[in-house]
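Appendix B: complex inputs.
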Amino acid sequence: MRADIAIVGAGTAGMTAAIYARRAGKEVLVLEAAAHGGQIVNTPDIENYPLAAHISGFDFAEKVFEQARGLGAGFLYEEVLELRALEGGFALQTPKGVHFAGAVILAAGSRYRRLGLENEERLTGRGVSWCASCDGGFYRGKSVAVVGGGSTALGEALCLSGLAEKVTLIHRRESFRGEEVSLRRLREKGNVHFLLSSRVTRLLGQERLEAIEVAGPPETGRHIIPLDGLFIAIGREPVCGRFAPLAALDGEGYVLAGEDCHTGTPGLFAAGDCRAKALRQLVTAAADGAMAATEAAKYLNRR
Amino acid sequence: MPVTEVNQNTFESEVLKSETPVLADFSAEWCGPCRAMKPMLEELAASEPGCKLVSVDVDREKGLASEYGVTSIPCLVLFRAGREVRRSVGLLSRDALKALAES
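Resulting structure:
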């Protein structure tokens, strides 16, 4: 298929880019590896997006999808395996074939960061989880832990504190990075325990997770905590390696592009969580989408 | 063929005693990724794959969820001749879902 603008990834950034690109009169093809919506579908309740004080991530994503599709954006569920620059455009290789576009917006997002421990894959879905809103219900009255110190970790702990008997929040630093309002709410809960300056070092259990080994805090040293569930919320990591070297990456693997979303390659733009930037939120993903599409349309009009 | 919802009473006849392999989708209404995958499962069921597709609501069927050790959803379990042969946790792509159903 040939389009003016191909967008890699149908999360909030990609779908917003599709809306702006269609409104700029461009033919748009969105290529998505899994399901449209992106990571926001894991969020049970969005509270910090202007005008959407309470909406589920799934409903939000469906509305943006309908808006983009209603404007005429095309969606194909194919994973982009490789991106090549051609004379006057780009070729995007998927398992089903090759698509061509004059400009490309990378909005491939990120995936959950792993702890990198033995047994982590094997025990996923068997006590190890990445989504409290999805899996919290299985731990009613049980003992769970959350690893991480950012907004996501605090949100996961809050969600679980209403379900589990006991929630231990484990963070490798001395203080949390997450929102103060969430931290205050957690401190008011009677069943949330804080374990700071500590790292999870082993996942124990055969058929399912039974316990974890924790190193720290310094005064206690290595110890075992019996658990029914462990929720890993140590952030996300980009999955953009396959787009290098057309898109230069920073040390963590994010695409180097400024607020104008231009990568070093003319006609190639980056938007949303895969772009190197200070704040990764729904509202900044949408802003990137708008910017990237506007810049991509300008680029095509100038040619 | 549509995706049939099964419960504790029908699980044995629909899944364990089924002559064709069965792909069971353990999910819940409030789970975003499960909802995102629903249309894919319906699409797959309509394409007449080699297996039957059923869904288990883990809220209503807590017994089944616990019996099969489901602690993360969406969770897809492939049964053949009454035995679990494959399991996948989390949102899959259409292609990966198709591959699981045909495995």
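Chain B has a mean pLDDT of 92.
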